Amino acid sequence: ITEFCLTGTLAIAVFTAALGSLQYGYSLGVINAPQKVIEKHYGHSLGVWSERTTVLSENSTEDEELPEAGQHPAVVMYWSLSVAIFSIGGMLSSFLVGFVGDLKGRVKGMLMINFLAVVAGLLMGLCKMWKPHIMVISGRAVMGFYCGLTSGLVPMYIGEIAPKAYRGALGTLHQLAIVTGILISQVIGLDFILGNDGMWPLLLGLSGAPAVLQTILLPLCPESPRYLYIVLGKEQEARNSLYRLRGPYDATADVEEMRREKEEADKEARISILSLIRSSVYRQQLIVALMMHFSQQFSGINAIFYYSTSIFARAGVGQPVYATIGMGAINTVFTMVSNDYSWMSYVSMSAIFLFVSFFEIGPGPIPWFIVAELFSQGPRPAAIALAGCCNWTSNFIIGMTFPYIQGLLDVYVFILFAGLLLCFTVFTYLRVPETKGKTFEEIAAVFQKGKKKLAEAPKDHAELEQLKTSTDA
């Protein structure tokens, strides 16, 4: 038999892995809707927001202006840190994806790190037992560390178990699960569900729930055949895994493909992160890869995911939480396929919906794909680690600074992001090559074409050979 079908085992394996991406998306979006409720609890804990002020605020008319907890500098700082610490955790763990994936395998790697997600969920879910701002920030940091690992392990595992004919379709499930998680967090974050004074710790604590389900299902999932063959050299176990995933079929072609890939990997030694940064051979590719990730984050997309409720409120939208849910719904659909005038609030909503839609068509998924296409097997792990760190670092900068930038620019805040996007668009047009249908050698030739002096070629060749024989970790 030479053909195979989508088996139940493959479906379970992909679904189970995607639970990690769902949890990542949930953690991205969950902090948004209950912002004002959590800020009041931060204010209470910090001693800058009294019960009397809360009662007065609830009983006041629309014409009365009372200070909100979120306007206090200490609350602003701790709230910004609650949002941004998530990215610090991801930034630190992004360097460990390859190590964790190769340590015990993709499946056991995902199983091991679920402990972090459960701990993070408990810290946030039980935050009222101590100081809420400290507990939430701690939980968000641990969850970010988990998500930095899972955002690398999930697409790695799905990409390695997916049949070639379905690789593209199954590969999009990682991004689809992320935006589905964002949407779920926004819906159950409504004040009449869990985004209220009594239930918000449960809302945050549920961030760890997908990890519990994933832990139950992971033992049913076969290990990646590519890991078994290319990393461990176990051909028969790799065949058995293929049969479990794809049913009875002739696996000769797939095993031969893995054999060639292993031979290529054995020929080209891994290049360290430091060597890659110093190398002039890969400098142009590295600049392009990092700029693509900068463009993803400095587009302002995560400012919307983190702060859309307050953005819509400033734009004059009457029910900003529902507008946020609408944004999440638009986000999910597109993954699968001057306040002086009242009508400006609808213009604001439409603009943000369109922005999210176009983001999911291009800047969202492409930076992750293009890094692997720009680099061969040797420098690829180091390039992916650098790109991941760059992405999470930029995410942190946006999460931490946006409230202050918004306070400075008010309703004109996205003009700044528009200017940055214009610069990134020009850079992409001038410097990013088309990679579709091209081999690594053809892509590398595009970058080398820009060098004017032919005398540099021998120097680059010598440096490349030195890098290939390097034993740096």
Automatic annotation (TrEMBL):
Topology within the bilayer: Multi-pass membrane protein
**Subcellular location per the Swiss-Prot or TrEMBL entry:** Cell membrane, Sarcolemma; Cell membrane
Residue ranges annotated as transmembrane are 76-99, 111-131, 137-158, 170-194, 343-361, 382-405, 411-430
Q: Name one GO cellular component term.
A: sarcolemma
Family matches, as InterPro entries: GLUT (IPR045263), MFS_dom (IPR020846), MFS_sugar_transport-like (IPR005828), MFS_trans_sf (IPR036259), Sugar/inositol_transpt (IPR003663), Sugar_transporter_CS (IPR005829)
Query: Major facilitator superfamily (MFS) profile domain spans which residues?
Result: 13-436
Q: Name one GO biological process term.
A: fructose import across plasma membrane
Gene Ontology molecular function, alphabetical: D-glucose transmembrane transporter activity; fructose transmembrane transporter activity
Q: Which UniProt keywords apply?
A: Cell membrane, Membrane, Sugar transport, Transmembrane, Transmembrane helix, Transport
Q: Name the family the entry cites.
A: Belongs to the major facilitator superfamily. Sugar transporter (TC 2.A.1.1) family. Glucose transporter subfamily.
Q: What is this protein called?
A: Solute carrier family 2, facilitated glucose transporter member 5
